[in-house]
Amino acid sequence: MASVGDCSVRRRRLDQRKTEADTEPSGPNRTRTGGDSELDPPVTLRTGTFWLTRLVLLRATAFIYLVAFIVAFTQNKQLIGERGLMPCRDYLNSVKRYVGGKIGAAALAYTPSILWLMDWSHMDSNLDGIAAVGAGLSGFVLLTGTANMLIMVCLWGLYHSLVSVGQTTRLCSAGWESQLLETGFLSIFLCPLWRLEQLPPQNPPSSINIWTFRWLIVRIMLGAGLIKIRGDQCWRDLTCMDFHYETQPVPNPLSYYLHRSPWWFHRFEVLSNHFIELVAPFFTFLGRRMCMLNGAVQILFQVALILSGNLSFLNWLTIVPSLACFDDASLSFLFGSETKRKVLQIQQEHAAGRAPKPSAGAVARRALNVSLAVLIGYLSVPVVMNLLSSRQVMNTSFDPLRIVNTYGAFGSITKERTEVVFQGTLSADPAAPEAVWEEYQFPCKPGDLRQRPCVITPYHYRLDWLMWFAAFQTYEQSEWVIHIAGRLLANDSAVLSLVQHNPFQGREPPRWVRGEHFIYRFSRPGSASAAQGKWWVRKRIGAYFPPVDLVGLRSYFQSRNWPHPHVPTGRN
């Protein structure tokens, strides 16, 4: 009897387990959906789709656009505005004369900018308007994660308009500007034609578009690696990092300590750099896992560069195409359960052949993506030839729209850091022994020995960066330096807004301004200089440019069509 009862109990338990098992989903594609609790386990997404990848790429691109437009809004007027150091109106006029005196297709092809169509008598308002609209649109995309082709074309066109008029000087144009334009152009094709949805089921992300981003990161890294191997000898003898942290354009506090790393660590850094830039990019073509490995390596590399210096938004921007190395399954940890459930549902519908019927816009978008592949392939030919050439050039575009460009950074490393320091005096005689020269300080450029290196990335002080280039050139090669001196003599508010400390604030403007040339070095931790709070020590090289006054600069300014600053009343 006992054995019969035991069998009956076991049979009832087995039947109960079978009933419970029948209520659970099964099969090879079983996916658990729900929340974050044990009763509602996380979602597991399929590999090989890019719905979340598209969302991450869009938001990352929008973030960089936002930073770039904020930089433009806060600094463009002082640099290329109506009374800027290099007014863009003068550049537009010179292009207009070059193309025959008319504003037409030739002018737009030479300098693609909507400024051609605007009122030049209000150039400051034009520059501010472009930057403000761009910041607003990019902020919308960043916050909502939604965009269409129209919005992304507007962002690309607005930023192109600013970069194009700053390209003749380094005041508003650098290698990362072209990189942002190329990244922004590729981002146009991530979006539906008109719809504003984070996950539009009728418009699946195009694998062509994803591969154009991957091709971009491959070219960026190979360009950077090859220019180093072909460039400075220190990249071949593994000594470049002995100098880089101290001599890079805008160091940060961590640069101070990394500069004092052991010699073997600096050798390891150079070897790692060569591996990351010359070997890892080829992982992109070796299957999903190796492609993800390359993406992870590139992102970690850029994070290390962000932590060790202030290279504008360049490193942040380089992370963007690296994100295309990851699919939905690998990026799902960044999203909540609701978003993942939506993606899972879309994946299941597409896998089962129940995807929504493509709209007319979706069909047009597919045709545009095929056209994108042809365009990128065609424009990549001279870029690849440049990579293979022993005369490789970096940060160059072979088409006026900057759709496919060459890249590279730090092909040569400066072994000593030189700085130009502006000084002013109220003395009537600049050569008098009793003349007191007081120094202007910039927000991030080394000047005051006790000023701690700044942390500003991804923001960018353009003038501080440009002063780094000017320091290893002459003032004849960087005439805008003399333009700054003239503005300082007049206490010009536009230029002074780019300066952190004006020693003549609230006082009479200086009678004379000069440029002094110094060698700067990091103080040694634990030294007497460091104990005094000095981050830097310096040694004077000599005069960068001699003392100048407003009267003496009149003919210099007139010969270059620069507006001459007002001479204060009572001065001869």
Automatic annotation (TrEMBL):
GO biological process: protein maturation
Principal location: endoplasmic reticulum
Residue span, Lipase maturation factor 1/2 C-terminal domain: 403-546
Superkingdom of the source species: Eukaryota
Occurrences of domain Lipase maturation factor 1/2 N-terminal (ranges): 173-332
GO CC terms in record: endoplasmic reticulum membrane
Pfam families per record: LMF1, LMF1_C
Biological role: Involved in the maturation of specific proteins in the endoplasmic reticulum.
Family affiliation: Belongs to the lipase maturation factor family.
Listed name of the protein: Lipase maturation factor
Source organism: Oryzias melastigma (Marine medaka)
